[in-house]
UniProtKB/TrEMBL annotation:
PROSITE patterns the UniProt entry points to: HTH_CROC1
Family annotation (SUPFAM superfamilies): lambda repressor-like DNA-binding domains (SSF47413)
Species of origin: Paenibacillus pabuli
Gene3D superfamilies given in the database record: lambda repressor-like DNA-binding domains
Domain (HTH cro/C1-type) ranges: 41-77
Listed InterPro entries: Cro/C1-type_HTH (IPR001387), Lambda_DNA-bd_dom_sf (IPR010982)
Coiled coil: none
Entry protein name: HTH cro/C1-type domain-containing protein
Amino acid sequence: MKHRQEPPGNKNIIGSRVVAIRKSKGIKQREFLARLQTLGLDISQTSLSRLEGQYRLVQDYEVVMIARALEVSVGYLLGEE
């Protein structure tokens, strides 16, 4: 596994939570991508990596799909819970 060498970006607030939840559930990035695609969100591995590193803006519909794929609430992803 390649570790991120740069500090997180500032393009979104959910990236670090996505990584933490995904890892706590033992979900690899490839599996997570498959879950997202099953839900109808077509995202590349590069885009997901940039999202998780907070280097990419996240659309509102993506937040909803990501929350569904991780089985958490949107509020939790946004740090409200």
